[in-house]
Each structure stands twice: as structure tokens, then as C-alpha cells.
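hi support,

uploading two proteins for the ticket. first:
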Amino acid sequence: LFFQLFVMRIVFSNGETWKQTRRFSLMVLRNMGMGKRTIEHRIQEEALCLVEALKKTNGLPCDPTLLLSCAPCNVICSIIFRNRFEYSDEKLLTLIKYFNENAVIASTPWIELFNAFPSLLRYFPGSHNTIFKNMTEQRKFILEKIKKHQESLDLNNPQDFIDYFLIKMEKEKHNKHSEFTMDNLITTVWDVFSAGTETTSLTLRYGLLLLLKHPEVTAKVQEEIDRVVGRNRSPCMQDRSRMPYTDAVVHEIQRYIDLVPSNLPHATTRDVKFREYLIPKGTVILTSLTSVLHDGKEFPNPGQFDPGHFLDESGNFKKTDHFMAFSAGKRVCVGEGLARMELFLLLVSILQHFTLKPVVDPKHLDTAPSFKGIVSIPPFCEMCFIPV
């Protein structure tokens, strides 16, 4: 895959590089508050900023793509760089433009062809060159941030992801086989930065489209929000256990959109016998998450958006092993906990403050992805955010 040319350290690496980088990244994310009140508070603050930005649309038709990217991008920026950006900041908007552009290009037929013949097509003109250019610019931005961190680094008081990595580099500077190098730092930050921004923003965009398409679902969610959260405080993760319908809707959005249909490439570490097949060591495997998320036995009418897929007969939230939106096993998404918190808190905050209004009749809204390759890209959709 084209990402492999940049040797992504968590998503596409393997062996000792993957083990050390993933273990370290998880440790830092937890130290920075993933799964705790500290990161929840950051998301709540960002949700309020998003709400204020949406209010400025004055209830007029708008494309919310940029705003829905700014919020998760700022959350991950606070973890990596210790600061957030104003939604009008040109650097933030440029970075988001690169993320959005790359996600669309990566899911086009041309990239599928490029993936099949990378050695041949790498030197041809085509949209893959735009991806490489965008990624190069993003890496330049990250390197600038790292240099500033080096100038202000306090070895005894790390403030963010980059600080933790720089301290680890200093401790292992005499280890010739260390995985903690400057190149690895740039690539790991890019990995966490891009994955932590684009997947969440795509899910939010797709989720709002589905809520527009199904106003009866939106009404039930807002009734639950009014009853449990009210209008005078921010939603928190403790609310989720008392909001089974909303929880089911968030899960159903992720199941229905099937964001990463074929997962990411994996490789066997030894010869594996699977059913009647022998898969040799080193074989690259793509697993179909679609086959699980759209399994008709587990989810009746899997092609239909139905929160009932995650509710029992009493209306309680129902867990299922078939929910693999974040993959599964040892290589499950390293930021799953963060993404779950963001999706719940940001969606609930939006629906707490706004009535969603489509610019066309809901029955005419198309929810089929505009592109479906590495990721599923939602179709363009303008909408109105009417303050409640």
C-alpha cells in the first residue's frame, strides 16, 4: 500500500518496531488521560467550541466538513503538541485540507491500481503524487513542532506525546538498535495525528447524514438527551450507561458506514493452517470487516440503518462480538478508547444544542458512500444547524 512508502510505525509496522512503538504509544496516551477524566474534559471543552462555531452558521445551509474535522483534530493536537488551534487558524485548516484530500484520493480506483503496481506507477503522473506531496508538507509541520519541543524540553516534566518520545530517545541514545529515533518520532506522530483526526471526523460526518435521513431516530436520541443530560450542562461519559438508545445509535452508525471495509494489511508471523488452507509465513492478508459488520445472522437486514441492532427486547444496550469497527485482536486501533469518547460526546453535544434540518426531503438523501476504498467516504451533504 502507498502508506508503506512512509513506513508508518504503528499501523503498518511489524515485529519489534510495532511492539515497542505500540506499547510506548499506549503508555503515553494513558498518561495523557485516554480513558480518564482529563481527556474527557478536553473533549467536553472542544465540544463547546464546536457548538459555538456551528451557531455562527446562523441556521443557514452549510457544509460542516471542516468544522467536524477541527474538533477531533484539536483533541489529538492537545495530546501531541499540548495546544489546540482556533478554527480559523490557517495552519489547522491547511492540515485538515491535506487529511480530507488524502482520504478521498486513497479511496479512488486509481489508488487501488497504484497499490497493485507501486513500483511501476510510482514514477507516473497521478493523484498518488498529491498524497505524497501532502504527507511531505504534514511531516514538515511535525518536524517544526519537534524542534520547538527540543528547545523547551524538561526531562523531568513531559507535557505531551512529543516530550515523552524525546525523553525516551535521550534515554536510549547509546542503544544502536533503539526504535526511538527522530525519523520514527516524526512518522509515529504523523500516524497518531492522521488516524486520530480523519477517522473520527468521517464518522461524525456520516453520522449526521444518517440522522438527517432518519429524523425519527434523531427525535428519540434528543428525547433521551433531554431526559438524562438536560440543557444546562455538558454531557459526560457517565451519561452513556443511562442512554442506551443513544449508545446504540452511535454503534449503529459505525456498523452501518463500515468505515474501513477491508481493515488494514496484516501478515502471518508463521505458517498458519486455516480451515482447508495453508497460509505461509509472511503472507499479507486483508480481512473483510464488512463480512462481520454486515453479517445478516447477527444483524437482520444489515443494509438497513437500525439502532435496534444494538438493543435487546427491553430497550437495553446489547453488546455483540460482531462489532469490529476498530478491528480486533492485538492490532485493534490504539486510539479506540479516545475515539469512542469523542464520538459520543461530540454527537450528543451537537444534538443537545441543535435541530438538524436537511436542505432536501430526507427521502432523497443518498447515504451510499461517494468512494469506498481504504475508507468509506460519505457523500457531500449540506445541512442546517437550528439552535434549540
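and the second one:
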Amino acid sequence: MKVLALILSLLVAFPVWGNEPARLDIGGSALVATGRGWGGPQPLELRLSLTKAVPYRSYLVDGPPRLVVDVKDTDFGLARPQDLFGADLAPAIRWGPYREGWSRVVVELPGTYRIDSAGQQARAALSQITVALAPVAAQDFAPRPSATAALRDLPEPAELPAQPGDEGFTVVLDPGHGGFDPGALAEGESEANLVLVFSLELRAALQARGITVEMTRSDDSFVALERRMTTARQARGDLFISLHADALPQGQAAGATVYVWNPAADDRAAEQLSLRHGRDDLVAGADLTGHDDALTGVLMDFVRTDTQPRSESFARWLTSRMSLMGIGMHERPVQRATYSVLKSPDIPSVLLELGFISDHDDRANLLNPLWRGRMVQVVSDAIVGWARDEAARAAMLRQ
């Protein structure tokens, strides 16, 4: 009975999604300027990231000039247009359901445009609709002549009940290495010191936005890998970010990279966690003391069905912000790995390589307060946006 009650409680805490409409991944969506306006409107590109490919159509209407994108079988949930990255590039953006089976996005444009291209790229668990807009002279603007009012029947944007800090949202920052383990070394600089400086600056920025921050270390001290995860769990962390700046042979790697857990290693991770942690220190809110390895592994894998996609969602938020803010990234900015600090089954976790200390440009960036300030803004914006998205999803589950 005790085991059954534990499983039922986890089912309530970590619901499994069935066949559902596509959902907007606002962290991977954006409105971006793709060039200079040279005195007029800038070329724009609308990117809508969805959890699966759906039929869509895009067209222009007038009075004022607007881009309309209709998407089938799509739920925007409580995502707010004002939280779309780049929303300030347009006078107004609205979205919502407009008739059965369809939702609509309306972007009021800062001038007259034409649709240069539109397409959808589908991947295994994500699809992106991209509409590229090129500015044109007023006489060349060719909106749909018989379009009805594009804003008809669209609801007012939903307001979230609280900001991340209002509900005690907690981020755990994990500056890698420390103490007798300096990490990578190059030109008299150590990885441990560089990531600690960045982490302290990021902590200050997050606290200023009302977010609770815990750090696995706040000075030049050594913290064992297992202890870092325990610290995150004891802090009831909502997000765990491990920060590094590794070294590789010259020319082999440069740019920021985000790592998430590799699900193919779940069985091995469960075994190692069971051996190296107390059973009461594996899943927050559940004491697995007295349960055998098989059941412990099953429960940890079950919990990961919730945390793994949330970790991947944050990685998309983060790399999207880095891309749009011009932060140099590795050619494969999101990768999967089996780092120990990513093993926690119950806390969404990523490892962020800020750059490679072995690369001259990356090292110069890490030493530059202006670059660090820009990167701090990118990471804090991604955290706040992802936290709001998480709150919206939680609100939908409660309804």
C-alpha cells in the first residue's frame, strides 16, 4: 500500500501528456529584425515554435498593415504576446482562438511589407513556422483584398497570476570546480574563477528581479558533485544551472553551448544515484528508503518524463535568447551529455558552457565586464521567460 500511494502521488505531481493540440513554445519563438531598415522599416521574421507540425496559412491585411498567421489544432494556453522575444519590434501583437480548430496570430506591422517566404521545418519533437517579411513601398503593398477584420473574436491577452519571484521561484547556480580543482587553465586564468565571477553577477541580476538564488559555492572552495545536487534539492530548486568554461585543443571548439541530460543513460544514472546518494535524497518530496533498486529506478525514470522536456524547453529559451542577442554559440548549441550535475531526476537541469577558456575570443569575452553583462541579461531573461511559461502550464493543469 505504501508503494501504491507513492506512485499515485507521483502521478498527480507529474502528469503525463496524452494526444493534445500543438502548443506554442514561446521560449523558442520570436520576432526578429533580419537586416537594417536604412531609414525605413526593418526586414522582419516571425518564428513560431510549436510542439508538433500543424497546417497553417499566412497572409497580409490592411487598415493598419498586419501579418496574419492561422494555425490549426494549436493551443496558445496562457502564453502572453508581450513575452514574445522581439515583441517591441511591432506596434502590437495578439493571438488566440478565432474559430473551431484554428488559432490566429496577428502582428501589426511598423510599415508596409510583403511576405518574402514562409515555411515550416518539422523535427522529432518540435516544429517551427517561419514567415519572412520584406519592407516595400506603399504602392507595392498587396494585402488580401477581401480579408475580414483580423482581430475579430481574439481574446484579450491572459494575465498570469504572479511573477516568478512572487511564488518563491528558486534558481540554483552551480559554478563548476573550485578549491583544489581549478578546472581548465589558460593564459593565467582558471575556469573556476571565471565562472564564479559570472555566477555572482548573475545572482545579483536575478535577485533584483525577485528570484531566489542558491549557489552551490560562492567562494573558491571545492564542492563534491553529489553535494551540488543535494544542495539544489534541499533548496527546493525549480531550475539548476551548472556553469563552466572548459578547454579543448586550439580550434576545436568556441562559443557557448548548453547541455541537457541524455535520456539513453537513464538506467545507468539511476544505478549510480542509488549507490551514491541516500534513498531520501533522490526525489524531492519522496522518501525512497526501504525500496529496492528496481522500484527506485522506475520511479526516477517516471519523474524524468516530466523534468526532461522541461530541461530541453529551458535550453531552447536560453539558446534562442543568445542567438537573438548576438552571443556567439557553438555550431551545435544544444547537446546531450551524461554529466553528473545533470543526473537529478526531479529538477530541470542544464549545464551552460559560457565559452571555452582555450579559445582566445571566448576567454576575452569572459574577462570583459560588458560581455558578461550582456550574457547575464540573456540568461536572466531566459530564466524569467521560462518561469512564466512554466507557471502558465501549471495553471492550465489546475483548470
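thanks. also noticed: The chain has two domains: 22-140, 164-398.
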